[in-house]
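Reviewer 2 asked us to include a model.

Predict the structure of this chain.
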Amino acid sequence: MLASRALSLAGKRALSTAVCLRGGHGVAKIDSYALPTYIDERDTPLPDICYVQNLSPDQVSLKEKEKGSWAALSNEEKIALYHISFNQSYAEMTQGSAEWKTVCGGVFFFIGLTALVLFWQRKYVYGPVPHTFDPEYKAKELQRMLDMKVNQVQGLASKWDYENKQWKK
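Predicted model (structure tokens):
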């Protein structure tokens, strides 16, 4: 399984590093997204290429020094070598950000804006509350439903005691 994965990656690398392909009508360039790129991501911590492509003379001498004993390298040189290959360490990639504050602020802004629209609609768009919502009307409506014995088997009228004129217990 590991061998097939390695051969698959080698095949992809061989195809992606070719700059031009010969087509029927001349030379067609490969798009930039097909070439290997450097990306710092947590799920792929080892990018395709090194972070620094064009080395300065100091970095070239440091790469030569890297081929020798690592005990001779100082901590600063080791860190400089690391930053030639990688822009950020894994700890820096997984470090939290303050983006959640912006997201929460945007959510609360739109909730507030929605509340303002609702209050404006209640005041200026909707008319007065219908008379059918008055408590007196509701009481008359309930009494009328009881008088008509609406839904006697399982509904409202089944819970009313018609002899004692009160709700059943």
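The longest strand covers residues 20-23. The chain has six helices and four strands. We have added this to the supplementary material.
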